Amino acid sequence: MATFVGAEYIIANVLIALKKFSNRDMVTLDELSEAGIFIQQQSLSDDKIDAIFLSSSEQVVTALYDFSDYFEYDRKTNSIRIVKTKNIQDLESRFIGYLPFNVLSFLVNITMKFVQQG
């Protein structure tokens, strides 16, 4: 049975990886779209991952509204930022650990790979 992974997990994991590797606290919508495509493509080639990663524009907008205490949209840069009252540890506490371990491990590793290629 497939696990559905919401856009909020993709946003959070990309922001975590960007902060760790580039000291950036924002991701452009274009970068987020590329990450979503990359993650889904990589998951299709991994027989152990039965997950659907929801990264459409509609899913991202929903995630921004539903998790406005973690993410904010910046119109000037067309990007998503971590809200000023939160940090990487807050994102890790909220968005790491609530998925099946194999899906979570895959998402964290593939997101870091995407950011490092960047």
Uncertain runs are: none
Radius of gyration, Cα only, in angstroms? 13 Å
How would the global form be characterised?
Answer: globular
Largest sheet: 3 strands, antiparallel
Structural class: alpha+beta
Helical run tally: 5
Helix content: 55-70%
- Distance, first to last CA: 32 Å
Beta-strand residue percentage:
5-15%
Q: What's the number of extended β-strand segments?
A: 5
How do the strands of the widest beta sheet line up side by side? Answer: 2-5-4
Average predicted local confidence, pLDDT: 92
Order of helices and strands: EHEHEHEEHH
Task: Give the topology.
Layout: E1 3-5, H1 7-22, E2 26-28, H2 29-44, E3 51-53, H3 57-66, E4 71-74, E5 79-82, H4 88-95, H5 101-117
Helix pairs in contact: 1-4, 1-5, 2-5
Quick structural overview:
With about 120 residues, the protein is an alpha+beta fold.
Which key phrases capture this entry?
alpha+beta, globular, 5 strands, 3-stranded antiparallel sheet, two-stranded parallel ribbon, 5 helices, 57% helix, 118 residues, single chain
What would your notes on this structure say?
The protein is of the alpha+beta class. It contains 5 helices and 5 strands; from the N terminus they run E-H-E-H-E-H-E-E-H-H. Strands 2-5-4 form a 3-stranded antiparallel β-sheet. A two-stranded parallel sheet has the order 1-3. The model has no long low-confidence stretch (mean pLDDT 92).
